[in-house]
Structure formats: structure tokens, C-alpha cells
Amino acid sequence: MELNYGKMRFETRYTYDFVERFLPSECGRLLEVGCGTGELAVHLSKHGHTVVAIDSDSESVTAAQQLGADARIATWPEFDDGRFDAILFTRSLHHIHPLDESIRHAADSLDDGGCLIVEDFAYESADEKTLRWFTSAIHFLEATQALTASDEFLGRILSKTETLRAWRQNHEEELHTAADLEAQIEKTFRRVIMEDAAYYFRYIANAISAAEKRDAILRSYAEQEVILAADGSINALGRRFVAMPAR
Ligand SMILES: C[S@@+](CC[C@H](N)C(=O)[O-])C[C@H]1O[C@@H](n2cnc3c(N)ncnc32)[C@H](O)[C@@H]1O
Q1: Which one, out of 108, 127, 151, 157, has a CA that is 20 to 30 A from the CA of 206?
Q2: Per-residue pLDDT tens digits for 59-91
Q3: Whole-prediction pTM value?
Q4: Given phi > 0 = left and psi -120 to 50 = alpha, else beta, which region is 48?
Q5: Do 189 and 166 meet the contact criterion of CB atoms below 8 Å apart?
């Protein structure tokens, strides 16, 4: 695995800007659940935050430690290490079971004035018109030879007749919908802010071959998703939640 994320890649920057917007002004200790290879945790640390990062996957944790994160192998909701000023679930909450206990434990692990910050997606929002836009975006990148040929998931998405079916096959196994996340967060937290966000660009991120142009390409697709979703031409895939406990 090649790891040298000195410069923040666009997909991390997109989450980082969202997180920074909502972190409490006095943010001493921060927990990231499902940190993957740790790029976000490392950049948050570089910007002065004390970050504990956990992931249930040992290879990811080793990679995160190599990047310099305080990363630990742990599974939510079993992890306990005192209270935090913010708890982040960065594209991990849709995987985590049981959902009610996971959200409850997050609320109980927050200090007074702390908040829950969730970056996730609503895979159930994908419809034919949205996936038509996404497949045409992939075709354009292929035509300009900006994509590597080997991404199996993109290959399946490109299958013209099975687009929606391929999407569902890739997303429906044991994942929570955004509606599940929203209902559970609303049930547990006092004040909940929710916003839509771009997300489709993340599927292309690992398949772009032109290294020097990748961030510009990803930014352009993120902007397209936001603009087209705003006028109802497609459905944005990303969902974000920020919530304060009911105490
Ligand atoms: C889609 S990846 C996101 C990784 C990273 N945050 C990112 O945005 O690139 C989801 C991560 O959550 C981790 N994960 C899934 N269930 C978990 C659990 N119950 N506790 C801790 N980590 C979990 C997975 O191992 C995986 O690394």
C-alpha cells in the first residue's frame, strides 16, 4: 500500500472542511470511528487537535499508524476511553451494528458541549436518472483515458442495462440507509443538523490514473453533483449529520 498523504487529497479535504465547520470551539479531544488509513485523523492532528482514531480492521490501523495517527484496533460500540468533545463517524456508521446502541454510546461518550459529526451516504437515493449522470461521467473519463481499466465496481456500474441493479447489489447487504441513521440520531440527540453533500466522486477517486489531475477532476464532479442536485436533476448521494446530546 502506498501511503504518503502529506498533501490532503480532495476526498479528505472535502470531509475535513465539513468537520472543521462544526467542531466545538473548545475542542480538546476528538474520536474518529472507522478511520481507515488515517489521513483525516493525521490532518486534524496537524491542525492542533488531539485525535484518537479507531478502526476494526487491523491493516487499516497499521497504515494509519504509519501515517502518524494515534490509531487503535477497536470495534464500535465496544470501545471506551473516557469522554470526547467530538465523535466523528467518517463514512463508517452505515456499517456499524447495532445502530441504536452505537448512537447511544456516542451520546454517552460526549463531554458537555460536545457533538456527534457524521459523514455518510444515502445509497437508497440512487435512481435511474442519477446513475445515468454518473455513468456518463465515467464514460467521459474513460474516453479521455483518465481512468485505470481495472476497477471492478466501476465496471459493473457501467453495465448499461443493469445499472440500478448493479448499484443495489453493491450496497444493500447489511448497510443502514440514511433514513435509518437519521431516525436513530433524531431519537437520541436534542438538536440535529442534516445536510446533503456530494459523494459520487469518491467512487472514481481510486480509479483515476492521471495523478496530477485527480484532485481537479474529483472537485469538478463534486461541484457537478451539488449543482445538479440543487435543481432536482439528480439526487445527491452524501448525507451529513451534526448532533448535540439531550442533556
Ligand atoms: C468506507 S471505510 C471509511 C474509511 C475512512 N474513514 C474514509 O473515509 O476513507 C469504513 C471503515 O469503517 C471501519 N469499520 C466498520 N465497522 C466498524 C466498527 N464497528 N468499529 C470500528 N470501525 C469499523 C472499516 O474497517 C472501514 O475502515
Answers
A1: 127
A2: 999 999 999 999 999 999 999 999 999 999 999
A3: 0.94
A4: left
A5: no
CA dist 89 and 232 (Å) reads 28
What secondary structure, in 3-state letters, does the chain show? Answer: CCCCCCCCCHHHHHHHHHHHHHCCCCCCEEEEECCCCCHHHHHHHHCCCEEEEEECCHHHHHHHHHHCCCEEECCCCCCCCCCEEEEEEECCHHHCCCHHHHHHHHHHCEEEEEEEEEEEECHHHCCHHHHHHHHHHHHHHHHCCCECCCCHHHHHHHCHHHHHHHHHHHHCCCCCCHHHHHHHHHHHEEEEEEEEECCCHHHHHCCECCHHHHHHHHHHHHHHHHHHHHCCCCCCCEEEEEEEECC
Beta bridge partners of 239: 120, 196
Atom of ligand 1 nearest to the CA of 77: 19
* C-alpha grid cell, residue 88: 466523528
pLDDT tens sequence across 170-182: 787 789 999 999 9
Do the Cβ atoms of 74 and 56 come closer than 8 Å? yes
Handedness of CA 6, 12, 14, 16 (dihedral sign): negative
Domain residue spans in the chain?
A: 10-124+174-200+236-245
With a Cβ cut-off of 6 Å, ligand 1 is lined by: 33-36, 54-57, 60, 75-76, 90-92, 95-96
The CATH class for the domain spanning 10-124+174-200+236-245 reads alpha beta
Which three three-digit cell numbers place residue 151? 476497477
Nearest CA residue ID for atom 9, ligand 1: 36
